[in-house]
Amino acid sequence: MSQEREGRAAPIAARVHLAHAVVQKLADDRDADLLHLKGPAVLPGLRAAGRHSSDVDVLVRPGHLSRLVAGLESVGWEQRTGFATGSVFAHAANWWHDDWGWVDVHVSWPGITLEPDQAFEVLARGSVLHPIAHRPCPVPGRTAQRLILVLHAARSGGTADVGLAWSDAEPGEQDHVRKLAAELGAEVALAAGIGELELHRDDPTYALWHYFIHGGSRLDEWRARMAAAPTARAKVGLVTAAMRVNRDHLRMEMGRPPTRREVRARQVIRLRRAAAELSQRMRGS
Amino acid sequence: MTRYTIADDVAWVSEQDLDPGDEPTAYVTKVPGGPPILLEGSGCLVWLAVADGGTLEEITVAAAGMTDAEPEEIRDDVATLVDQLVIIGFVHEE
């Protein structure tokens, strides 16, 4: 009377729910502190019905990262991008598993400028256990979830989550979110997400958030990132990274590790593209 | 009397947790090793009945209550499926 079969073809939404539970079990087994974010980790009322994630997002206590990674790799997750190459903020790396798909492991959240260890402590302070795939998973409390969703929307240049997370919140709840943002050093990113970025025109990160919200050329992005880099050392690191081809992304694009020749060829393309953008800009100025 | 419950190391999600579909469906796995398996139709209904815990008779009555079937019509099939789920470690008996 029943049909049972391998679930490799499980729909993404089901796979993501189960993968959250798997990751939590791996963390529990190694005493690694986690917070589950987005997708099925979002508390009721903060996410539109029928809106699903395509991957698992977790924030790990930075000091526990190696434990979590050991757990992930013990059951077959393979690292595909590193923290230096995963994103502009160098805040996350991701792993792939044939059954469970993508896991994005975050050590910090874009927009939060407080040190990652302290930020985790603040976010974990109000955490609650939320059932995902019928297993208890720690997630940030409601105020922190509102903030995280708005910061994510700002970073993604989208507004999908802002309505439920911010616009529909009572004024008192919005005040709580603003206070939490201040504690986490996330005021500018919050402002970007809720349409108040112009109040922060003098902030070094203003241009970066303006780019995320309104878009622009790659040069605009890099100029914004340079402005936002807090130290001379950070600026040097940024330039170095900018000049280097992202091997991780090239590998994903090609479906195999790139050869040295392919990396060099891509480098030339990048330099030509940058030069072309610069020429256009000079002609336009 | 033997009682059945979902094993402690199992995670599962049903269509009720996602977007309700035409047919009852549950995806079930052992954590952390997997892999996921799919229980469709009547198999899913039995799983949902096991999720509440109970004796084989209670599970049979609960599963029948989710369909138009009489308990005696499905008793043998429910017993077979529950046995299989015990063997693969998804259901715990005590």
Automatic annotation (TrEMBL), chain A:
Classification via InterPro entries: NTP_transf_5
- Pfam families linked to this entry: NTP_transf_5
| Protein name as catalogued | Nucleotidyltransferase family protein
UniProtKB/TrEMBL annotation, chain B:
Give the highest taxon in the source lineage.
Bacteria
Output the Pfam families linked to this UniProt entry: PqqD (PF05402)
Query: What protein does this entry describe?
Result: PqqD family protein
Biological source species? Nocardioides astragali
